[in-house]
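From the pipeline queue, job 12 of 40. The input is one protein chain; the requested action is below.

Action: predict structure.
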Amino acid sequence: MKESLLNLIACPDCLGDLALESKNIVRESEEILSGELCCPGCGKRYAIREGVPRFADLGKDEVQRETAENFGAQWLEFDHVEAHHHQQFLDWISPVTADFMKGKVILEGGCGKGRHTRLIGEWGAKAVIGADLSVAVEAAFRNTRDLPNVHIIQADIYNLPLKQCFDYAFSVGVLHHLPDPRAGFLSLAGKLKAGGAISAWVYGEENNEWIVNFVNPVRKYFTSKLPPKVLYYLSYFPTIVLYLILKLCYLPLKKTEISQKLFYADYLNYIAPFPFREIHNIVHDHLTAPVAFYINRAEFSEWFEAAGAERPEINWHNRNSWRGFALIRPETENGK
């Protein structure tokens, strides 16, 4: 944790300013690796462990706890950051560009291993906070600690320990795994200052009937219940099959008319160039979560309206998911 984070965080219980306890601090260069934060207002205390302030309580909601544990194990296993993640991220948050990040204070809801948090830091944000409920914050800290403008916290998206001071908030691939995706979105919007902007990318209900009807039951009742190491190795088998199909069929035909007639064409053509480890990550991702919601366009649009969005832009991504962006009206009390 960098001391400059104190300007952005607040006690999740009373929203008062937090102070760094002066005793028992372990520092390494600019980072505080262990110590404690305290709230002078209500007396609550929060540990700093392995460089990350810990505000989370995994014991309150079983589904939320299982999701955090499963994804935490996944992101610790797949903690790599690849060159193609740059464009993939921009595709998810379009029409936002890298230049948009410059000089802004930014919040990521569900940062996982920190790959997007790192990109935003490199793109010139004034400050960026990556928040996640899972132990993947430890991978995120390792992946970003060299950047002076990046901060990682372990926190519950429904009760973020943050001031209402952010220029931009976003969540990519996380909200649909929450017990209440809409509430998670509104919580992020509630941390924006007047006139701030928000982006989200979620699984779409449209065109995903085969996943809802066939993959979801397998994930819900079987694979999400497996020990992390067992699922990691078991997921190799469908990964190998998918990888061979992508490389032998979809990739060679990608620039032909035939490609658009293939099954699930837009998405599978999109991921066809990805390396094996990224395909494994994608397969594992679809098998690990205890819950996954598939959001239709009308429902997704309503989230933005509830947040006080001004002319939200809602678009298809690969005809199987929705991405949205909007400015929040200055007169709106965010997240209400």
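Job complete. The first strand starts at residue 19 and ends at 20.
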